[in-house]
Write a structure and sequence with these properties.
CATH topology of the largest domain: Thiol Ester Dehydrase, Chain A
Distance between the termini: 57 Å
CATH architecture of the largest domain: Roll
Number of strands: 12
Order of helices and strands: HEEHEHEEEHHEEHEEEE
Strand content: 35-45%
CATH class of the largest domain: Alpha Beta
């Protein structure tokens, strides 16, 4: 039987547990309405979200919170199942964002497709998302994630699946110094310098209030996305620009017990004439993450 047909009433108010947050003050979603079997309208609240940085950070964290909300309230996925990010891309409508800022109460129009079910349980979802505020489009996004029961996740992760053990191990090691030129406050810098200008060590502060709001056995995906943005910004420094669009793939987890290296290189401009960069992350010689970042602003050459 289809979970969407048997799910309990959609909540009017989104509690922190439905978006996998411990701090209720970080909940960015306020309501969920089912429009059709695989179509939803999610209300967001950005009125007090100024400390989450630029529009891309706010957009991405808002979208990330839709994963557990849709899984639990839309498709009946039990709590305790693990959500694994596979791919994500977004495009900002900068004129509309700049005109009225990133506050207010936007709506997320979401169409779910390529829904995979095993034994009547949803195991994967793709989402097409349009973000609007007061009738104006702020952004579009596409993402896909998979869902694993605890037993399968634990078996695949092995010793790396113990979040408390991994956090304790990470916190026993010195946090590398932050890079300069990323433009963030000290606590939000997620890169550490190396002896080359286009390579950094990923700086994973496991005490960061947003990235590690709750225990995690690996570096969260939103931290990797932020690292890609900061790598491009640092490489371009002191030139300014906004990561207007990004296309990313999560190949494997970035673990907390060994260094992860972030590399960035300038590519030919994209079709809209924006500067474009490839950012990759490797750990123990294996590719973990790739991002194509298109930057609006001044040209690099």
């Amino acid at each position: 039987m289809n979970e969407s047909a048997t799910t309990a009433a959609i909540p009017v108010r989104v509690e922190k547990g439905l978006v996998h947050k411990h701090d209720a003050g970080q909940v960015l979603l306020s309501g969920l309405e089912r429009l059709a079997e695989d179509e939803f309208l999610i209300a967001a609240d950005w009125t007090e979200a100024g400390d989450l940085g630029d529009g891309a950070v706010l957009l991405t964290e808002t979208i990330r919170q839709t994963f557990p909300l849709l899984s639990h309230a839309g498709y009946g996925v039990p709590f305790g199942h693990r959500l694994l990010w596979s791919e994500y891309r977004y495009a900002l409508n900068l004129p509309n964002l700049r005109e009225n800022g990133t506050g207010g109460r936007p709506d997320l129009h979401i169409r779910c497709y390529d829904v995979v079910r095993r034994r009547d349980r949803v195991t994967a979802l793709s989402l097409h998302i349009t973000v609007e505020r007061d009738g104006e489009q702020l952004a579009t996004a596409h993402t896909r994630f998979t869902i694993q029961p605890p037993a399968i996740y634990d078996r695949l992760r092995g010793s790396h699946g113990d979040a408390h053990r991994m956090l304790e191990l990470a916190r026993s090691r010195p946090l590398p110094p932050p890079v300069s030129g990323a433009g963030e406050e000290f606590r939000d810098v997620v890169l550490s310098p190396t002896d080359t200008t286009d390579r950094w060590q990923l700086r994973i502060d496991t005490h960061h209030p947003m990235y590690f709001d709750h225990p995690s056995d690996h570096a969260p995906g939103i931290l990797l996305l932020e690292a890609a943005k900061q790598a491009v910004r640092t490489l371009r420094h002191p030139r300014v620009g906004v990561a207007e669009a990004m296309e990313t793939v999560f190949h494997r987890y970035v673990e907390l017990d060994s260094p992860c290296w972030v590399d960035a290189q300038l590519l030919p401009d994209d079709q809209l004439g924006r500067a474009r960069f490839l950012v990759t992350m490797h750990q123990d010689g294996r590719l973990c993450f790739t991002a194509l970042v298109s930057v609006a602003g001044d040209r690099t050459r």
